[in-house]
Amino acid sequence: MGGRNICITAVEGQTGFLIAELLLTDKSFSSKFDSIVGLTFDPKSDKAKELEALGAKVVLHTPGRHRQTVNALKKTGCDTLCLVPPARKDKKDICLELANAAAHADVVNICLLSSAGCDYADANSQPRLREFIEIETAVLQAKGDTSTQAGHSPCVIRAGFYAENILLYAPNAKSEGVLPLPIGTDHKFAPVALGDVAQVAAHVLTGKGEHGFDDRHRGQMMVVTGPMLCAGNELAEAASQALGTTLEFENVSEAEAKTVLNAQSDIDESEKEFILEYYSLVRQGCTNYIATTAFHDVTGAHPTEPTGFFKLYSDEFVQAPKKRKLRA
Fold first, then answer.
1. I want to staple 8 with a disulfide (CB 3.0 to 4.6 A). Which of 82, 261, 301, 319 is the partner?
2. How buried is 61 (Cβ within 10 angstroms: 0-12 exposed, 13-18 middle, 19+ buried)?
3. What is the pLDDT of residue 190?
4. What domain of life (predicted)?
């Protein structure tokens, strides 16, 4: 076995679950670690139970119980932490607490799932995005603490806007033939498939070097977006091509977009705010870039094209989708 014990937070959410599932089921990763521990707010959730069935150890995480969290990390022998901010309004406080707990538990390797665009965000108008900067700071500060080796092998993955969030508009695509997004008509963004982000994270978490993570990953700030810049009409065109139907882009107001989110999603209110804030970055022109170098260098593959994404989720657009939690 690989001698690495990996703890992944917020495994009841899509991101944490998918990373853990990939590690446990993909043989190219499963031979490189000894154990997977999933921290969760709800051990009885379907995702937690599924990970247990796959071989993970699921541990209850109670925010505000610092000593309990430190002891849990120590007891599991965790030497690597995948810090996934949960889909909750108190995500910043939870992540700051976890980063501190990891330091007290002497966790050497920390991989943080952050958000692309957080460095462009304004603390007043885009607070949900900007709080990722504070989380990054908490994780990276440990690198400068010479009194301990904890946190001395960090990696930050700034994931772009998850393409899966577009699934929220599948009912509109199905019933009205439109994708109603509040992104304006002048600027573009490059949505990234959640599975691609999980691939990068899995490579980082299982990569090994003299000081912890693979030296190609250790200390890296990796920005991971999709491979294609899309304006709203180009995104609709890619969807139309993949689905064999005709979809049109409709530039809607932020208020209309919020109405759609409220009607068609059960995600936490803070996550709705996050999504709307990211759309505002698109309107400002702050997302007119592609960042695929990290994905290519880490995985050796090519990220999912928009047409490939829509083909993958074609059933969501053809059949009536269920409410779903997308970010976590």
1. 82
2. buried
3. 97
4. Eukaryota
pTM of the model: 0.92
**236-271 burial: b if 16+ Cβ within 10 Å, else e:** bbbbbebbeeebbbbbbeeeebbebbeebbebbebb
Q: How far is CA 304 from CA 29, 49, 159, 189, 235, in A?
A: 20, 29, 14, 14, 14
Contact 44, 25 (CB under 8 A): no
Going from the first residue of the chain to its last (328 residues), give the mean pLDDT of each consecutive group of 10, the final group possibly shorter.
82 95 95 94 93 94 86 88 94 93 91 96 95 95 71 92 88 83 95 96 95 93 96 92 87 91 81 94 97 96 93 71 44
215, with CB counted inside 10 A (0-12, 13-18, 19+), is middle
214 phi-psi bin (left φ>0, alpha ψ -120 to 50, beta other): beta
Distance (Å, rounded) from C-alpha 306 to C-alpha 196? Answer: 12
Can you give the C-alpha Rg of the chain in angstroms?
19
Amino acid at 33: F
Check whether domain 164-188+226-288+302-316 has CATH 3.90.25.10, yes or no: yes
Torsions phi, psi for 315 (to 5 deg): -65, -30
Beta bridge partners of 109: 80, 153
pLDDT at 147: 65
Exposed / middle / buried, residue 31 (Cβ in 10 Å: 0-12, 13-18, 19+): exposed
How does DSSP assign 174-193, residue by residue?
HHHSEEEE-S-SS--B--B-
Both tokens assigned to 244: 């064999």
Contact present, 234 and 247 (Cβ < 8 Å): no
Q: Does domain 5-161+191-224 have CATH number 3.20.20.70?
A: no
Report pLDDT for 69: 86
The sign of the dihedral angle between the CA atoms of 3, 18, 311, 289 is negative
